[in-house]
Design goal:
The complex is a heterotrimer of chains A (89), B (517) and C (338).
Chain A lengths: L2 E7 L4 H11 L4 E5 L2 E7 L1 E5 H8 L12 E5 L1 E4 L3 E5 L3
Antiparallel strand pairs in A: 1-3, 1-5, 2-3, 4-7, 6-7
Chain B lengths: L3 E2 L2 E2 L2 H9 L11 H4 L24 H24 L12 H28 L3 H29 L8 H5 L6 H12 L2 H30 L3 H31 L3 H19 L1 H10 L7 H20 L9 H8 L3 H11 L13 H10 L4 H17 L23 E2 L2 E5 L2 E5 L2 E5 L2 H9 L1 H4 L5 H6 L17 H9 L14 H14 L3
Antiparallel strand pairs in B: 1-2, 3-4, 5-6
Chain C lengths: L17 H7 L7 H6 L44 H24 L8 H11 L2 H18 L3 H28 L2 H13 L1 H14 L4 H30 L3 H6 L1 H24 L1 H29 L4 H18 L13
Classes of the chains: A alpha+beta (89), B mainly alpha (517), C mainly alpha (338).
Chain lengths: 89, 517, 338
């Protein structure tokens, strides 16, 4: 299975996002680099709006991810509640 | 931006569908083929434009909101950078030469992407892809402008950046990136989308921006890391557009497969060749290194693009053949390119140097199979010669590849001691190439590539001297005349880093900033 | 390492980039708008002719009849580059968002007189497609125009038109529901009142000269349609108790006032460059204005059943006066072929 990934800037806004992603995707691994983190995961990775909202204590729109996103890899499926990256093979 | 219709809240997908779908219509007062004259010229067959999926589904209200927020953050940092002499925070002044290459070589490409996506954003028949192209068109002008505004601070203090626009259209090595984008934009609209949206954005941009920007952070360049990462947040959308266009074309008609495969093959190689400049930046121009070019290539090309090609296998797409060559070359191209620029350092708008002994050790450790064996001896020799006052400058003009326009600096894939030369004859003229792949690209579209504005040929034809000079005059100095025409200021923009004005100023200014005078 | 931030008096070597210094002198700092705009488009040594237009270079000033010595004589009085543009629109979008929320949350639509709601749907919703046409045409101007000063403004304008199309969509969803969008599209495609307008828009899609397109779309058509719909019709709706609808079209009114500054500056600069330019512009304006008045007559009737024709005539006169003032007229003394 190929790996998908998402890379985010490291700042105060992304700390809870990264935490939520890692909690929801136990198979994901965190790679830290200067000023950014890259989260790799076999096959697929799903970001849940609810989990981020719980950590943030406020409403979160998944489109806010755009503010902090550096790069990603995989096919994307985005709804109001979930943002999923996946590879078919 | 929640939205209701008759009291019911709409989901993202539903909202986006209403907001874009149905805006277009079948024209009847003018034939559709006249309104959209270009989207059938390449033989691509589209049966249902409505099948286009835009995964990010940005409406303009959300676009303005998020993009302005990014801009506010970025410009706050650019202002702070200017106010606080942020340029003095970089590791050492050699680093600034990477920015010179960036603004002269890369930023003008962002502008071309802006205009190219405006072209496809007008010409594609479907509303969905057209909107996606338009958003990329406006994003790309953002990128060139934020890069100019960030680097503007450096330009005030350092040489080599001051005439980036003029240089991009003229200077010999800048014809490599310029011809890359001219090639893409002058192709049909779908080829442009595959060239830029897919090969460049999806497969290659990560290699340019992510390790390089992380490198900027590592080297204390707050301004560049900020525009770089801020631009990358748009790139995530652009990469996705690149992937979507491929999937869309392949799903629409099986006849599209060979056309798309051919474009992928061609543009992967065009991109790999252009990345030679990035390889050199990563391995030689960043005083503190995050990762080697080879490591970045392994992660972002072999692993990531590998995953992508596995995914696309379901449509019949295969990994381009040229990748085998690129993998063989990954231990070599950065060293070969830097050696070339070091030799031609009198004709470049940035400074060059030989790595320090510690840096050579780092290169040995990252390139155990190639550096010590093929490059270290030459580099140590040049380093000694320079220290002894015999800095080597090559004063001949190199032969360029007709396709990628890079000087003949690459070696045979299986013999790193032998420069690779290929040639072909077309309509009675000989054309030269750096590789089998560049030769094949030429042979497939000879009428196009025979037009290439090759800087060295142009110099020989006398087209690169300032107006009014007399090349037959006894004291005529062709190199000086060419540099004048390039707007490269001799002794300020070019030559060795050692002893340069940039080096002296940086040391003096940093001294003033860190000590009580 | 961190540098002590105490002010260090370091004298810059230069104030701005050389291509800007050549225009305005070495010692003057340049604005962000200038650095983001001037000479940004390549003009020399293109490598290949486009497959899709081999008669032209990739960027080619011969794509229009308008002739300029310096394409950067055009200046956007708003000084929009991407950053200032998006920040300006984000503020306006905030206001528009509040208006939509206010109207939706207070249930103001339910309080509208039915005739008023019905008429708003009939007049406003088919204009989604007109805006989409405006988006296409301005994207064309950006793609094939010459010089960043004008092409970047056209790109911003194109995205604005998409934004306005989406606001109109949202008005349709708020006033009624998704089926209203289908009804409006059918009207745009079939209803007699819209056909001349649609013909006008489709005819602009096949224009080659991007400056003529700027005249046909941005100057003439919008110059007549916006006052008709977003002012005269808006006044009429307000009188019938449709203030809620008026709140939802405020963006369009503000936008038109603002973008007219850019348009007027652009036309004035082009006309002032030469009598030939002025005559060419005047000819385009005359041709397209005559067609636009024919195309808009039934729409005026639909929007203002009693006064439509008279209002349109008045708007047309004001428009002609505006063009005169900008210098868009054939020279009096020499006979320029029209």
């Amino acid at each position: 299975m190929s790996k998908v990934f998402i890379a985010l800037q490291t700042n105060d806004d992304t700390r809870p996002i990264i935490e939520a992603i890692l909690a929801d995707n136990p198979h994901a691994e965190l790679n830290e680099a200067p000023a950014m983190v890259k989260i790799d995961a076999e096959g697929s990775l799903t970001i849940h709006r609810n989990s981020i909202e719980e950590l943030l204590g406020r409403d979160f729109n998944l489109q806010e991810l755009h503010l902090h996103l550096i790069t990603l890899s995989g096919n994307i499926d985005e709804t109001d509640d979930e943002f999923t990256l996946s590879w078919a093979n | 931006m929640d939205m209701k219709t008759s009291g019911r809240k709409l989901g993202l997908k539903e909202k986006y569908a209403h907001m874009t779908r149905g805006l277009g219509w079948e024209t009847t007062y003018q034939p559709m083929d006249k309104v959209f004259p270009y989207d059938k010229m390449e033989g691509i067959k589209i049966h249902d434009w409505e099948k286009w999926e835009d995964p990010f589904r940005l409406t303009m209200d959300a676009y303005w909101k998020y993009q302005s927020e990014k801009e506010r953050k970025l410009y706050a940092i650019i202002d702070a950078f200017a106010q606080n002499n942020g340029h003095l925070n970089v590791t050492d002044a050699r680093y600034i030469n990477a920015l010179k290459l960036f603004i002269t070589g890369v930023s003008p490409l962002e502008y071309m992407a802006h205009r190219g996506f405006a072209h496809t954003g007008r010409q594609l028949r479907g509303v969905g892809p057209r909107v996606a192209c338009q958003m990329q068109a406006i994003d790309e002008i953002r990128h060139v402008q934020t890069q100019i505004h960030t680097i503007s601070n450096y330009n005030k203090f350092y040489n080599g950046m001051h005439d980036f626009r003029h240089m991009h259209d003229r200077v010999w090595y800048l014809s490599v990136p310029k011809s890359f984008f001219d090639d893409a934009i002058s192709a049909g609209p779908f080829e442009f989308m595959v060239a830029i949206g897919f090969s460049f954005e999806y497969v290659l941009t990560n290699l340019l921006f992510v390790p390089f920007m992380s490198g900027a952070a590592f080297n204390g360049d707050m301004g560049t890391v900020t525009f770089g990462f801020s631009a990358q947040s748009d790139e995530a959308r652009h990469m996705t557009l690149g992937l979507e266009v491929i999937k869309f074309l392949l799903e629409q008609d099986p006849d599209n497969l060979p056309i798309v495969q051919k474009w992928i093959d061609k543009w992967t190689w065009r991109g790999v060749r252009m990345l030679t400049l990035v390889a050199m930046m990563m391995d030689y121009m960043l005083p503190k290194r995050v990762m080697s070019w080879r490591e970045a290539w392994d992660i972002y090309f072999e692993q990531n693009a590998g995953a992508l090609f596995k995914d696309l296998a379901r449509y019949g797409i295969t990994m381009p053949k040229c990748v085998e060559t690129a993998i063989k070359e990954k231990d070599h191209i950065s060293h070969q390119a830097w050696a070339t620029f070091y030799q031609y350092g009198a004709a470049a708008a940035f400074h060059t140097w030989m790595p320090t002994p510690e840096e050579m050790d780092w290169l040995s450790s990252k390139y155990p199979d190639s550096f010590d064996r093929y490059y270290r001896p030459r580099f140590e020799y040049w380093r000694e010669q320079e220290a002894a006052g015999n800095r080597f400058y090559n004063k001949t003009l190199p032969m360029l590849c007709q396709t990628c326009q890079i000087p003949m600096l690459f070696t045979e894939p299986d013999d790193p001691t032998k420069i690779a030369y290929r040639e072909t004859t077309y309509k009675g003229e000989k054309y030269h190439f750096c590789s089998d792949h560049c030769q094949h690209i030429f042979e497939d579209e000879s009428e196009k590539y025979m037009q290439s504005w090759l800087p060295v040929h142009q110099i020989y034809q006398g087209n690169c001297f300032p107006e009014g000079v007399d090349p037959t005059a006894p004291d005529f100095d062709p190199l000086a005349a060419v540099l004048q025409w390039y707007h490269i200021q001799f002794g300020a923009d070019n030559l060795s880093f050692e002893g340069s004005e940039d080096q002296k100023n940086f040391e003096q200014w940093r001294g003033m900033a860190t000590q009580n005078v | 390492m961190q540098i002590d931030l105490r002010t260090v008096a370091i004298r810059p070597k230069r104030q701005t980039f050389s291509h800007i210094a050549r225009r305005q002198g070495q010692d003057k700092a340049a604005s962000r708008y200038q650095e983001a705009t001037l000479d940004l488009q390549p003009t020399a040594n293109f490598h290949y002719r486009p497959y899709w237009a081999p008669q032209f270079e990739i960027f080619d000033s011969r794509r229009t009849q308008i002739v300029m010595k310096d394409w950067y004589s055009f200046k956007d009085p708003r000084q929009f580059y991407y950053g200032t543009y998006t920040m300006a629109r984000a503020r306006q979008q905030d206001a528009a968002e509040s208006a939509f929320e206010f109207v939706e949350d207070r249930g103001l639509i339910a309080l509208l007189p039915e005739s008023c709601r019905e008429q708003a749907l009939q007049v406003l919703l088919p204009l989604r497609h007109l805006e989409w046409g405006g988006n296409m045409n301005n994207t064309y101007i950006c793609a094939y125009g010459y010089g960043t000063a004008i092409t970047q403004a056209a790109m911003f304008h194109a995205m604005d038109r998409l934004g306005i199309a989406q606001y109109l969509t949202r008005i349709g969803l708020t006033l009624s529901g998704p089926e209203a969008l289908d009804t409006a599209k059918t009207a745009w495609l079939e209803q007699a009142e819209w056909q001349e307008l649609r013909r006008y828009v489709e005819d602009t899609f096949v224009l080659d000269d991007w400056f003529e397109l700027l005249i046909a779309q941005n100057a003439v058509l919008d110059g007549l349609l916006y006052p008709l719909v977003y002012e005269a019709f808006d006044d009429a709706i307000n009188l019938q108790g449709g203030t809620a609808i008026s709140m939802l079209t405020q963006f369009m009114r503000d936008w038109k006032t603002e973008t007219n500054k850019w348009l007027d500056a652009t036309l004035k600069t082009a006309a002032a460059e030469s009598p030939d330019n002025a005559a060419q512009l005047a000819q385009w304006v005359a041709h397209w204005q005559q067609r636009a008045q024919v195309a808009l007559a039934p729409v005026a009737q639909l929007a203002l059943p009693e006064t439509g024709a008279a209002v349109l005539e008045e708007i047309a006169q004001e428009f002609s006066a505006r063009m005169q003032k900008l210098g868009v007229r054939a020279a009096q003394t020499e006979g320029v072929a029209a």
